[in-house]
Specification:
Blueprint: H1 6-12, H2 38-46, H3 61-74, E1 78-82, H4 85-94, E2 102-106, H5 111-123, E3 127-131, H6 136-142, E4 149-153, H7 165-174, E5 178-182, H8 187-190, E6 200-204, E7 218-222, H9 224-238, H10 244-275, E8 281-285, H11 295-301, E9 308-313, H12 316-326, E10 331-332, E11 342-344, H13 356-361, E12 368-372, H14 378-391
Parallel strand pairs: 2-3, 2-4, 4-5, 5-6, 10-11
Antiparallel strand pairs: 1-7, 6-7, 8-9, 9-12, 11-12
Helix pairs in contact: 1-3, 1-10, 3-10, 4-5, 10-14, 12-14
Length: about 400
């Protein structure tokens, strides 16, 4: 067997066993490593092999297993695991940018991503131009010679606008710019972003990779050149590395991610179809629906509609809160990608930092609900949603 298939890689990829031959991956809870001699210590610092480690901030056997396994899933050469998803976003951007560089970014971003792009990067002298990510003509106009990088969420949070990864990556490549993609909503199960031209792909492993609400984590994937010479150098000196215990949790999450995410996406489609046209809703947003304006792109880029949907309740915040408070199975939280279904009100939580005008420009109304579909029975979720809509 020269090339193993996805689910096999998700169970066995990157595994390292000690002399004890443990079946489940070992957790190497150590911050440092001992050497047999001073000469060996010198050699490790000068030119360590992939299985030689010097300090947990630089690398760890458990963390390395996770990095290699997620790289196999994503189709990337290498990966660097981080302490959180936002550590991954910050690390991917800061490791390749400097004062005077120019970044073209999609306007629709998660609140913390927006903060990094619009406030932190500009504070350090990086020029930022924002575009509507789903509008390719705006990318064509903005991505000009002198652009250092482009950055976007392949599927935006929370309105599920889709950016054409292949097309934007091609525009960036023409002018020598890097393409950095936040791929959380697309998931590594459905994503082919590296194949479609992305240079660096970022995930919050907190979401679908863990998938069970246990730990914070993140990962940056790309070529060995970028990961080991740019990303690792920045991350190991600034301290954003993943802990070994978290890496072990993420390894366990990867074993089942393909099964979980495909089941969640199937349920999301069932729910979207059940809600579409409901009298209490002004719209249902799900890339897997034929009514979604980017359905063709979603099918071409991902092959599925994903695990997330959004819908807008007629009646604003008051009606929306009545709906949320009437839910019995679905939980109210601001996480996503969990085994438990979660309803989020972005206007008062994840995107509350934005002004009302900024939220309106992103189509985040007071009636918008973001729904992360979990692993419950789809019929139970539909019944819960319909009953809660009756309360509106």
């Amino acid at each position: 067997m020269t090339k193993k298939r996805t689910r096999t890689n998700l169970v066995h990829g990157g595994t390292r066993r000690s002399q004890w031959g443990e079946l489940s991956e070992a957790i190497y809870l150590t911050q440092g490593f001992a050497y047999d001699s001073a000469e060996q210590a010198e050699g490790r610092f000068a030119n360590p092999s992939p299985d030689e480690f010097v300090y947990a901030r630089y690398g760890n056997p458990t963390v390395r297993m996770f990095e290699e396994r997620i790289a196999l899933l994503e189709g990337a050469e290498d990966a660097f695991a981080t302490a959180s998803g936002m550590a991954a976003v910050n690390g991917a951007l800061m490791s390749v940018l400097k004062a005077g560089d120019r970044v073209v970014s999609a306007r629709a971003l998660f609140g913390s991503c927006s903060y990094i792009v619009e406030e932190i990067l500009t504070r350090f002298g990086v020029e930022i131009e924002l575009v509507d990510g789903e509008d390719l003509s705006q990318w064509e106009k903005a991505v000009t010679p002198g652009t250092t990088a482009v950055f976007f969420e392949s599927m935006s949070n929370p309105t599920l606008d889709i950016v054409d990864v292949a097309a934007v990556s091609a525009l960036a490549r023409k002018v020598g710019a890097l393409t950095i993609v936040d791929n959380v909503f697309s998931t590594p199960v459905f994503s082919n972003a590296i194949e479609q031209g992305a240079d660096l792909v970022v995930y919050s492993a907190t979401k679908h990779i863990d998938g069970q609400g246990r730990a914070l984590g993140g990962v940056i994937l790309g070529s060995s050149e970028l990961i080991r010479k740019k990303v690792e150098t920045y991350m190991k000196h600034t301290g954003g590395a993943m802990s070994p215990f978290t890496a072990w949790i993420m390894l366990k999450g990867l074993e089942t991610i393909d099964l979980r995410v495909r089941a969640q996406a199937a349920s999301a489609e069932t729910i979207a179809k059940a809600l579409e046209g409901h009298k209490a809703l002004t719209k249902v947003i799900y890339p897997g629906l034929a009514s979604h304006p980017q359905n063709d792109l979603a099918m071409r880029q991902l092959g599925a509609g994903g695990t997330m949907l959004a819908f807008e309740i007629d009646g604003g915040k008051e009606a929306t809160f009545r709906f949320m408070n009437a839910l019995e199975v679905i939980l109210i939280s601001n996480n996503l990608g969990d085994a438990k279904s979660i309803a989020t009100h972005p206007a008062t939580t994840t995107h509350s930092r934005l002004t009302p005008e900024a939220r309106a420009s992103l189509n985040i109304s007071d009636g918008l609900i973001r729904l992360s579909v979990g692993l419950e029975d789809a019929d139970d979720l539909v019944e819960d949603l319909l009953a809660a809509l009756d309360a509106v």
